[in-house]
Every structure is written in C-alpha cells, then in structure tokens.
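re the bet — no i am not wrong, look at it urself. input seq straight from the record:
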Amino acid sequence: MDLGILAQQVFNGVMLGVIYAMIAVGFSLFFGVLDVIKFSHGDVVTVGAFSSLGAIGIAGGLVALPPLVALGAGIAAAVAIGGLVGSLIGRFLILPLRQAPAVNVLLATLMAGTVLREAIRLGVPNGGNPKPFPALLPAGSIRLGSFSVGFDSVIILCAGLALVFATHLLISRSRMGLAIRAVAQDGEVARLAGVDFQRVVLGTFALGSALAAFAGCMLGLYYREINFNMGLLLGVIGFASAVVGGLGSLLGPIIGGFLFAGVQTLVVVALPFSSAYKDVIAFAAVIVLIGLFPTGLIAERRSERV
C-alpha cells in the first residue's frame, strides 16, 4: 500500500480515536462517581452538534460575524447546553434513583436519550433529514506525496487532544478533580470530610456531558453533516471503549477509544473490500478483549478511579 494512503488512514484513525475517547471519558466519570451507566450520553453528542449549528445560524443571522467568531459561539453553545442537559439528567433522573436497582437507572437514561433524540427530530425544522454543517475553519491542506490533510482537520484534532489532556489535568491536579476522586473512592467519607456530594456529582455530569457535546461539534466540523440519530452508534462505541479500557478510570477509556478506532482503521487498511464491516469487526474485537480482560485493560488501577 502507498505510504501516503496509509498515513491518511492513520490520521483518520487518530481523529476518530479522540472523538471516541471524549465520549468514553464521560461514561467513566459517571460510573466513577455514582456507579451508574448513563445511556443517554450518546444523544448528548447529538444535542451538542445541533446546539452548535443552531447558535452559528442564529449568530450569523443577527450580525455578520467572522467564521472563527461564529464557530466560537457555536462551541460555547454546545458545551453550555450539553453540560446543562447532563446536569439536569443527573439532578432530576439519576440522583433520585440512586437507591433503585441499576436496571431502573439504565432504563430511565435510555428513555431520556430517546426523548432527546425525538425532541431534535420533531423540534428542528425538517429534523429527520441530515443537516449540513458550515465550514468555518481555515481552508487549505498539507500535502506530502499522496498524503493530504486539511488544515481544518489538523485544528480539530489538536483541539480534541488538548481537551482530553486538559480533562486529565483537571481530574488529577485541580481541587475539583480531588473532590471527584474523593467521591468516587467513598462518597460517605467524602461527605464527612466536607465535600458537597450533590455539587460534585452534578459537576461531574456536566463535565462529562460537555465533553460529549464538544465531540458532537467536532463531528459536524469534520464530516460537514449532522443527523438527529448520530448519537446512537457513538454512544455504544463510547460505552464499549470505556468498558474495554476500564470503567471508573480516566486513562482506560482514552486507551479504549483509540483502540476501537485503531481496529476500524486496521480493517480499512488491511481489508479494503470489507471496510463496510469495520464496525462489526471492531465490536467483535471488543467482545474478545472483554473475555480476556473482564474488568478492563487497566483494572489494576481501580483504587484510583475518577
């Protein structure tokens, strides 16, 4: 295979890995603080994408804005609305069900995701059809032989990597991160130590959901199109990545996200004729890894859950 084409596929894999990692980290954060699986998380990705598109359209309709300023407004709206949705689900749906069987929380969040998805489909004009996402990043590309990557893709990738790294620093170095880790370790002891349990939990849900919403905006910028049901598969992939990496850790879901994207890329590179089955093969690999590592790839660090 031509090295330029191979490099192109590797770049695409890294891009997908960043997006999957951002979604998977949210699942791990939620599980870390409350031992719950929030199955509406994938639909928060969709909320972020449509919030960003709506804010860009409204801002552009009110006043002529430079593309990067409009994009900033879109990202701010995605992160704010995504974080708000996540905290509302945590406050009014998950916290009241803390003492209920886990399957109740699972079902409730699954239905909440359906409500979000259908609200977008019915509330957005012609919401059942894909929506074009504006190209707001600088044009142009980097070319090295047959390898070609747009400046916009490089910017998106760098922004995603920076946000994942910033999240790691927030959890590991900040006072808020210390409180999150304390609640994850032992909520009752954290309360006795003066930690505001509810505030930390809602902050964690807001943080994880804001990451997912930003990932939705990244997907819109990268693929130039969004859809009301785009979060369905992404939610499953994010959850699978978190489980493979190790639910409750921070590094594990990041590794799991890149691993899942790596398998997809490997299928496309090694077996181009079967690229349509890349998701099937990637999920099959997840099944094998779960069988080999039932508690995740870095389960030995469970004492350091976030």
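see?? DSSP finds eleven helices and four strands in the chain. told u. also Residues 300-306 have pLDDT under 50 and may be disordered. so pay up
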